[in-house]
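ligand=uridine-5'-diphosphate-xylopyranose
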Amino acid sequence: MKKIRKICCIGAGYVGGPTMAVIADKCPHLEINVVDINKNRIKAWNDNDLSKLPIFEPGLEEIIKKRRNQNLFFSTQVEDQIKNADMIFISVNTPTKTHGIGAGFASDLRWIESCARQIAKYAEGHTIIVEKSTLPVRTAEKIKSILDLSLKGNKPKNANLQFSVLSNPEFLAEGTAIDDLINPDRILIGGDDMEAIKLLEDIYSNWIDKNKILKTNIWSSELSKLIANAFLAQRISSINSVSALCEKTGANVIEVSRAIGMDSRIGNKFLNAGPGFGGSCFKKDILNLIYICEFYGLKEVAKYWKSVLDINYWQQNRISSLIIDKLFGTISGKKISIFGFAFKSNTNDTRESPAINICKNFLNEGCELLIYDPKVNEKEIASELGKNEKNVDPNIGNWHKFYTIEDSVKNADAIVILTEWEEFKNIKWDLISELMRKPAWVFDTRNICKKEEITKSDINFWQVGISDKES
Ligand code: UDX
Ligand code: ADP
């Protein structure tokens, strides 16, 4: 049976980077080459200053320090590493299509296709291709047909060329990626080549119990990933819809979450009300699901999943309007501090962050945003909100990035907490209050602050899912 010695991972992003770092750490006998066409990204992965790694993930720096240039290598040598590899992981981006058929719903598979073509051109011998990127169902089939076509035009030097395609979706969540990779709930491997499945299973068996490794057909594996994300997102939309009802009725969403979460059939995770879900996966995967359902004529099913996205958007707009309303119905010329721009804590990722839509809503009302986030840099914010130059149109607001909490609240009328960063839980509110303009407000969309500490500091307080009467 074939032996795996060299692995190549195409795509050094939020999935490829941490996943390969953990495999390198757990399998010192394997050589792992992570390749990417983005030179700057690779440069950052190779930077001696580990704080400059392209992604922030707790625990990642330590592993990179230990394994980089030992058995873990980052480079732009895509062709060479494809040639050398016994197994190739595909971890490239698959954003929602912006043009053409399926625009706004279907995944853009151009990067996957270009990977498959590169593999077809440069691979040698029996090569196992592992899909790691989240993909629409039946993508493995497309990869396989591109590879099979290349076999037909096989050159003599590649007489042993042979491909097996497996689906092995990654379930890590950003912010806890390293721990999720070390202690996953399950590993899913879809495919029909038993030898290839066994070889991939053997890699994971170096640190994961065999009982946690599930084997399915390739389409079940691809679909399971979409459905897992859709179910998680659905829970958040459910609790967010309930948060609005709690605010009206006097119920407390934290108490409701705790009460329902103790039912073992429901479970207590993913029941935190908030400003809506963000991240690169949930929206994209649900859009994909909607597209697939419509393609197969399942209109009602498509409509059902679309409502999960609708509630998410509605929650962001509901919170924006409610804040404007509390600030006397106008925020033009006012200063609003934004605490947290990342889509969740412990990541520098801003993709689909609820902060984007909420900040845009505020800017459209002409206010000045004072943004503080411990990990998101100014360039990232600019790519979402546009450059922070003084706007020509006086009705459109402006934003600034600050590097300390204190600097970001000077003369602010309100603070809106959008990301649940640990440091926001321990703020000395009496000191903050002195820096703000009165009447001052704190809007806690993550339910992480202690009400008494804020209200006793002469600041008005609003929490998601808790009625004004109670808070
Ligand atoms: C998600 C899936 O969890 C992961 O399995 C998959 O591989 C990729 O997509 P990720 O997007 O990184 O991971 O983070 P996750 O922890 O799922 O959070 C997604 C969003 O939901 C965040 O904006 C988060 O703040 C929000 N969320 C999560 C809530 O609003 N409430 C909750 O109770 C949980
Ligand atoms: P994810 O969150 O899924 O990891 P990212 O966007 O963070 O997505 O990372 C995907 C990476 O894949 C990017 O760094 C991108 O440059 C890289 N990439 C896309 N297509 C190719 C390709 N054909 N060859 C090499 N790298 C690629």
